[in-house]
Structure formats: structure tokens, C-alpha cells
Amino acid sequence: MNLTLRIWRQRGPEDRGAMVTYELADVSPDMSFLEMLDVLNERLILEGEDPVAFDHDCREGICGMCGVVINGQAHGPRDRTTTCQLHMREFTDGETIDIEPWRAAAFPVVRDLVVDRSGFDRIIGSGGYISVVTGSAPEAHATPVPKDIADAAFDNATCIGCGACVAACPNGSAMLFTSAKVTHLNLLPQGAPERETRVRDMVATMDDEGFGGCTNTGECTVACPKGIPLTSIGNLNREYLRSLTRR
Amino acid sequence: MSWTDEEVVPRVRSVAVTNDARPTSPVGIFWRSTIGKKAVMAVTGGVMLLYLLVHMLGNLKIFYGRESFDEYAHWLRTIGVPALHGAWFLWIMRALLLVAIVLHATTAYQLSRRDLKARPQKYAHRQRLEASYAVNTMRYGGIIIALFVIYHLLDFTTLTVNRHGVEGAAYDNIVSSFSVWWVTLFYIIAMLALGLHIHHGFWSAARTLGVHSAAREKNLKIAATVLAVLISAGFVTVPIAVLAGLVD
Amino acid sequence: MPETTSLGSGGSAYWTVGDDIADTAAPDGPIETRWDRRKFSAKLVNPANRRKHTVIVVGTGLAGGAAGATLAEQGYNVIQFCFQDSPRRAHSIAAQGGINAAKNYRNDGDSVYRLFYDTVKGGDFRARESNVYRLAQISTQIIDQCVAQGVPFAREYSGLLDTRSFGGVQVQRTFYARGQTGQQLLIGAYQALSRQIDAGNVEIHPRTEMLDLIVIDGRARGIVARDLVTGKITPYLADAVVLATGGYGNVFFLSTNAKGSNTTATWRAHRRGAHFANPCYTQIHPTCIPRSGEYQGKLTLMSESLRNDGRIWVPKTKGDTRSPDQIPEAERDYYLERIYPAFGNLVPRDIASRAAKYQCDDGRGVGPGGLGVYLDFADAIKRMGEDKVREKYGNLFEMYDRITGEDPYKVPMRIYPAVHYTMGGLWVDYDLQSSIPGMFVIGEANFSDHGANRLGASALMQGLADGYFVLPPMLGNYIASTKLGSVSLDDPAVTSVVGEVTGRLGRLLEINGDRTPDSFHRELGELIWDECGMGRTEAGLRKALARIPELREEFWRRVKVPGDSGELNQSLEKANRIADFLEFGELLCIDALHRAESCGGHFREESQTPDGEALRDDEHFAYAAAWEYTGGAPVLHREPLQFDYVHLAQRNYS
Asked: Keyword Iron, does the record have it (chain A) (predicted)?
């Protein structure tokens, strides 16, 4: 396959940045999207140009490090797929592919396609945990958890923190991310003692980080590689409103 | 970073977000948060929706003829009499609606500004949005409806711009306005915008207020469609009837 | 320039033999009470004094994340580093299968002793009994801890935890969270760590990579790290340093490790005096998706559970290029079922892997480059129905389809072995302290608990045991029992290390040659895979040992690293890591050459039973090989292993 790539190049946070066009020949349809970028970078290095910076690590769709917007879609055209798991057979010979970083005020560009997602870490740090000091845990079977609750908690816990939800949302909102963690922990009996403070503090941090609000457009769940459902946002709203009536 | 065993030197920089600016009262927390503001929008939207439903049903009385309709319009001004004096009920309703509109508009404005700021740069490759037309037109729809309401009040409440403009002659006032093609067109466009607004708003409000089961959301989506169609169709019937000569 | 020195010189001895060493930290006496007695004899740091002490933790995986969170909870100042953009991304996250624990919830005869026994035996008798027993003891606490943190393990309808059997053992002791157990456990540790970061007890440095260790007066007192965004090189000082930096599987270039996984932290520590133990113990997983072409940068593992219902075969004719559905039953060779009739497709990982390699070496492999064998579900679909197969393996089939573009319900899967875990690592004693006092090594980065082969679902167990439960009291003991003088950033020992690190990066940028960093990594990886992969021979290892120094010399002459060091420069990061792999690879081959026996993940073709099984040589090799760095030929220190509880026996699966 021969491709025309238009890639966002930006040297640093202060730089303006622009889309730059590259022609790439002999792309195999079996390549993953990131392997295609690897090949481009190998060429750029030998031509004495700066390779394109992009985040990636596990390359099996679980670490959440990779993620670019491909032709206007976070993680590209395939459903429930991270960028590293997207393969070139999803594209056609001669196609022009636009590659851009996540766009959100809360995710400033570090370089090229690399953005700073540390706001997510601060949301988790403000309440996305159960406070259990190592060694103080009761016997695991002391509290049975109904299977449906455990399964629902698991579904929300599968979030990989990649940020595609924020990138896809026209408001740059982190509601899906925050709702997944709140739902995961607030559903479980172990999470009950901190149920109210958790959601209150996490939402406050989410707002402070400069993420937008939710207008229920549903873009986030479509982009989510793990298919976190919109109902989690409903649950976050409920937990939040409920928390304000307690203590 | 030089230190000895004896002295305690704070070596760990706190990276925690400062919480100083955050309000502590439940109302303060609620009003400051995006979710709180959304809840305000949802509740005030619900109040207005209820009002519109009644308003629309009342409008249909026009098909019973001039006398019946004018009598109905008069009754509206005297509901609650004699327990309430004169037009008190009407004024209470107006006050309630005004509060709802102001809160709805304020939160909409604040949230929209916030949302636009949160996504300052668009994608060079236009995003292919999954969301429906209704979702993407909430803001513009809201503005159209707001402008319409102002015109509507000047037309039928204060009668400032009404061509007939006789107090108490509600039926003739309506017929005279809708005899002008562009007033009717504006009215119909506004009602379609209203339908779209309700279509997304109703269901979205339900989620904002905490509905989180997929089955219930599906039912609410159906309800939203029914309400949207019912309300906009109900309102649009009147000018169409005027245009068609069914009401004159 | 040490980078270009050859460790051995042309054909003469590649190593020298030094004094034997011993693990003096482990108590004697009954194995059941050793850990309790060690904890009791350990000195304690008064809670009020803990915040006067700073601990550096490098890495935020299961071991590092758990250690950082726990140390901070106890009151220490923690400075923690990860090269990823968030502590949540460490490669522990990719573990699929599960975590073992001797809970015996099934009442199926499991016990701490049985888990201990299985692990020592599974490790082919090359692990310390004391360490393994402790691991089995702690395993049950880990499950309690994780459940309390909200880790959503699979549950039964009763609401109680579900378990399954895993990795060729006869009890159901593996706890799991669908196929994402590693993710869920790591997120648990990450959340605990995040809480401490928010509380100001942990100073986190994401996108920051450790490039060297600072040793002062024989003790580890800090690290030198590079901020990957600004390129700034900064020394950090502390009372103790904990390395939790994972394994070295990426020396093979293609492995199931994350792209960023590297050996720089451990190798730099080795160069500063930490012994590196048993590097030749590498585990190869039989069911990975084969590579599709030259450009491939990473291999993906699929759960071993596929072998429960899939049948492995190759065409009987060499170089048969027909599509699989065109090959009649009579012309297929179900070689595992033929050679190992008792276990069939369920033989242990190393045997399945080697058998696949032999078929492919023999020219009967399938797919691109002939590097693959079929894993066929046609019979399973016929027997159970497609729906049942989908229910059981749906997510794996989907993953395979996504990567290869082939539908495994219609076309047999193609699989090939790949490196995915390394049992070797920095040598540590019972306290997890390395041969440099004050430097502790935990998780996959150390060598301690798995011997020559790791059992399935034991990696997560070891990482969390080290981080949550073993390291914290032992680190406290070190701090309480050591008089640590003050150290200044102006200390020549600090500035010289900073200078060395800066100089090395500068040299990499100056070369401006004509080959990319990856091209060297790929070449090194292929060489090591061929000569020090699934089957190793003396001749092959000697060939690799002759080639690696040449390649290293070429690297330092011809590598091209664009950009500069004062910015985000991913090529520079890569080149720096590859430079260390080029040194480490040589030690890996030396260790493999010196260990003339076969055991676990180390298969020397000269040492096999008539059936082609790994043949241990307990008389000569029942020891852990701890290598000391000299700059020239490394020095071998043997730590003899004693087996008082589990009797040495040969594995038998035929």
C-alpha cells in the first residue's frame, strides 16, 4: 500500500504546530498502525529528520499509553480498538490519513502526538481508591459480593485510562473516565465507607483540571476501546447528587 | 537536596491539588460543579416542559371557536379566584417560569463557555460525530428558542408587536399574527427547534438526574420522542390551521 | 570507553570463577517459621522517625507500585519514578491469566506447602526453598489485600471468589479477573499509590528514567535520572534505593514485553557492583501470534488455555504451501499428540515451544517465513458447537482476528513461541537486598523465587508479595540498623555519575552514523533468539559471543540518533537502552554457555534425556550463578542451593 500521511508536528508545548505531509510507500496491510509509524520514523531518522514522537508501550491494547486521532476518530475507524491494535488493512491503498494528537485543554501537547494526561492521575489520586493500609485487610471471603455486582464493577474497572473519551468529546469532558472509576468502587461493598467523599472529591478535581462538562453526546463511549457504557455517567450523576444530601 | 539524619527537611514536594478554593457547603459544592449546574438545567428544563405541555393543550382550544378560546384566555388570568386575588396565580406562574428560564440560561451559558474552553482546538480532520442532529444543535436551538420567546411575549402577552393587539381578544390576536407569513415561518422554525431541544433534553436531563439503567434509558428515549413530537406538532397545528383557513 | 570493551577475548575464557557466596539473611531451622523469625529479628524504625528517611523506588508495576504505596503509608518519604506517562501503565498490566494463592477455598487439597512444593519443582530445583516457602505463605494475604482494595476478581453466584486451575497443576488455586488479572491488580496498586501521591507522601516522577545508580562508601545512596520531556539530568539522593524495573526480555527485540521495557536500570546497577544472577533463565511462551513481517516490533501472547481445546499440527510434507483446508487429515502431523500421548497438546510451556521450533527448523512451519504451527479448533467446534467455543475463547479469537485479519472460527490459528518472562535478574538475599547494601530489588527484576522456570500465575504473586509484604519490613531493618551519614549533591561521587551519564548521551548523539537504533536492536535480538533462545548449544553461544562485541563496536561507530538531549527524544531513549542490551546480551550468553546442563527455561541441546527432555546436572549445577561485573571477563560467584524439603527429581511428561 502507498499512503499519504498528514501528521501533526509540534516541537514543544509553546510551539504552534502544523500538519505535515509525508508519503509512505510499501506499507503492508498486516502492519499495526504504530508499526507503520515505526517504519516512517526509521526512514525519517536516516533522512536526518526528526522522527514523529508518539506514546506507546505494551502494544497489546491494555496499558492505555497509545492513542492518536486518525481521520477525526480517536483510535481510528475500528470499534473497541486501541491505536496499537488497529491494523493497516482497515485502510485502502492511496488513502490520505490524518493523524492528530488528543485535543483538549486538559491534555496539553508535549510534542507531536504526545500529550500530557496527568490530570487523569490527579482525578484518581483525589478519591479513586479504597483506603486500605497494607496488611490490614480482612479475610477475602468475609464479605461476599453478588456476582452481578462484581461483574458490573469489573466492566467499569476495565478502563485503561487512554483518554480517548476526552479526545472524542466535543467538550473535552472526562465524565466517562471518572464515572468508570466511581462506578467500579462505589458498587462494591468494600468501597461503601468512602462512597460520598470519593465522588465529591473526584468530580471537584475533574472540574479543576479544566475538563468540560457532559452534554450526553455519546461520543466518548463510541471511542472507548473498552466500551465503558454511557450508563456509567448516569450513575456518576446519581452518586454525586446523592452524596450532597449526606453528611 | 542535601541533608543529614538529624534534621527533618521536607524533601517531598506536595503535588496534591490545592483544595483551598473549593466551597465546603453542599449548596456551594453543588453550584460550582459541572454536574450540579447540569442538574439545575435538567430540573428547570423539566419545569418548562411541564408548562409547555399545558400551554400546548390550552392552545388547542382554539378549534372550539372564538368565544370558547377567549373565555379560556380570560380564565387563565383569574385562576384561583377567589382564594387568590385577581391575577396572582398568573404572576406566581410567571415568576416561577422566569426563575426557571434565568437559571436554565445562566447554567447553559456557563457550561457552554466551559465546554468551549475545554476544547480550544478543533481537529484538522473534521470529526465524524456519532451523535444525532438534536444533540449537536442544543446550543443553537436554545438561542433560537430564547429569541422566539421574547418575540412571542411581545406578540401575545404585551401585544406590543401584535397587528390586532386588542386585550382580551386572544383569538383575533392569534389569527392576525399568523396571517403574516414570516411570523408563521418563525413560529414553525422555533417549534421545530423546540422539538429537537426536547428530544435530546428530556432524556439527557433524566441521565443528569441519575438514571443509569440501559432499559430505563431506552424507555425515556421513546418518551422523549413522543413528547417532542407531541409538543411541537401541537403548537404547529395552530398556525397551520390559520394558514389553511380552518381558523379565521 | 567501557562500552566497546569486549568482555571476553577471542576464544579464551569468557569468565573467571570467584568465591562461593551464601544468602546469610535467611534464618535456619524449620521452614514454616523462617519468615516469622526473620521479621521478628528485624530492627524497626520508630514511626516518628520514618519521615526523616527517604526511599527511592524505581518502577511502578506490581512490585514497585505496591512497595511505594506501602512505604509511604508507613511514613517514609518516597520518591518514585516511571518512564511511562503514568504509574498505571507499567507492563504488569498486560498479564492475562491470574494469580496463585494457597487459600484452598476449593478444599481440593491445596496448602501453603503444596504451593511451595509445586513452585520449587516447577522451577526445576533452581530456586531457594526459603524464599519460595515465604512466597507461598504470603500468597493468601495478597488476595485479602487486593479484595479489600476493590480488585474485581471473578466470583461465583454465591458471591464468593472463583478460582481455576492453571499452568499444569492439579489444584484450582488461581484467582482471576477475566483475562485481565494483571490490569486489575496493577490498578489496585496504582490507586493505593495515587492516594499517597495526593497526600504528599510520594513524590512521583513520571516520564523520568533512571540512568545510573549512585553508590557512596559502598552503599546505594541515590540514582541519576533523566526527565524524558525536558531532557534534564538530575541526581536524587536517599537512604535506600529500590529497583522494581522488570525483566530483560526485550534483549530479544521481539518479545511479549512492552516496547519500553528495558534492562538499563538493572544493568547500570550491575555495573556499579550488584551481582546479576541466572540471566540465562528465560521463559518462552508457546502460544503467541507469529510475526507477520520484518517491520514487526512486538509479539502478542494469547492465553495458554487455548491449548485445552485446540489441536496443534503441521503439514507432514516439508514446504507445503497449500491452505490448511486443502491439507487432508492423513497429511497432517499432530506432533504433540504423537510424541507425548499422555499429555498431548497440554505439555508444559517449554516442551511445547521447543517442539514447535523443531517442526519449523525442519521446514514444516506454516505462514510467513515458515515460522508458525497451526492451532486448530475445527474439532472443538464440531464437538462443542461454535457457540460454546465462542463463550470460552471469544475474546481471544477476536484478538487474533484483529491482529491477523483471519477468522479462527474458519481458518486454524497460527502460533509461534515468544519470550515473555525472565526468571534471572539481580541477585538478592532473603531480605531482597542486592550485593550493594542499601539497594533492594523486587519483582521480575530480581532472580529470587522462580528458579529456572516460572509457573503460570506466579509472576503477579511474586511482584505483589515483594512489594506489599517482604520489602517494607526488610527495608526498615536496613535503615534501622545502618548508620547513614549525610550526603550532598556536591559529593564527587554524585557529580561524577552525573558526568558519566551526560557524557554517554552526548556520545550517542555525536556519532551521527548511518544506522537507526532499532536496526541494531533487531540484529541483536535475532542473534540472541537464534543462539540463546529455545535451544542453546556451545557452538551457537560461542558464535553469539564472537558477534556481540562486533555489533556493539559497530553500534558505537554507526548509530544515528537525531535531535538533542534537552528535549523529548525517543530515539535517544531507545539508543541508550539498546547500548545496555548490547552489553547485557553478552552476559546472557556467557551464563548460558557456562551452564552446561538443561534446566527449566534454559535448554542446552547437549544435555537432554533420550526422549529429548531437559536433563539437569545437579551434581555440578545446583547453584545460582551470580555474576560480578569487572569491565572485562565477569566473575562467577556460586550460591549453592540446598534442598531439605523437596527432593531433587527429574521432570517427566511423556
From this structure: yes
C354: buried, middle or exposed (CB in 10 Å: 19+, 13-18, 0-12)?
buried
User: In whole angstroms, what is the distance from residue A241 CA to residue A245 CA?
Assistant: 7
Average pLDDT, chain C: 94
Secondary structure element (H or E) that encloses residue C358, with its range? helix C349-361
Grid coordinates given for A120:
487523569
Torsion of CA C441, C447, C448, C452, to 10 degrees: 170
Pairing label, strands C635-640, C16-17:
parallel
B-chain residues near A217 (CB < 8 A):
129-131, 135-136
Does domain C285-419 sit in CATH 3.40.50.720?
no
Residue B97 belongs to a domain with what CATH number?
Answer: 1.20.1300.10
Residue C654 has pLDDT above 90, yes or no: no
Domain boundaries of chain C, sorted by first residue: 285-419
Considering its fold, how many domains does chain B have in total? 1
Q: How far apart are the first and last CA of chain A?
A: 62
Of A103, A206, A245, the CB nearest to B119: A103
Strand pairing category for C425-426 and A96-100: unpaired
Q: Which residues of C touch B3 (CB under 8 A)?
A: 237, 486-487
The verdict on a CB contact (< 8 Å) between B11 and C52 is no
**C339-369: per-residue pLDDT in tens?**
989 888 988 788 899 999 999 999 999 998 8
User: Neighbouring chains of A at 3+ CB pairs within 8 Å?
Assistant: B, C
CB A55 within 8 A of CB C79: no
Contact C613/C653 with Cβ under 8 angstroms?
A: yes
Classify domain A117-243 by CATH number: 1.10.1060.10
Q: Which tens digits make up the pLDDT trace of C17-33?
A: 999 999 999 999 999 99
d(CA C376, CA C413): 6
- Kindly list the partner chains of chain C, i.e. chains with 3 or more CB atom pairs below 8 Å: A, B
- Using DSSP, how many helices (H) and how many strands (E) does chain A show? 8, 7
pLDDT(B178) > 60:
yes
Give the up-direction half-sphere exposure of residue A237: CA atoms within 13 A in the CB hemisphere.
28
Cβ-proximal residues to C33 (8 Å cutoff; 6+ apart), any chain = none
Nearest Cβ partner of B115 from A215, A216, A235?
A: A215
Q: What is the ipTM of this complex?
A: 0.98
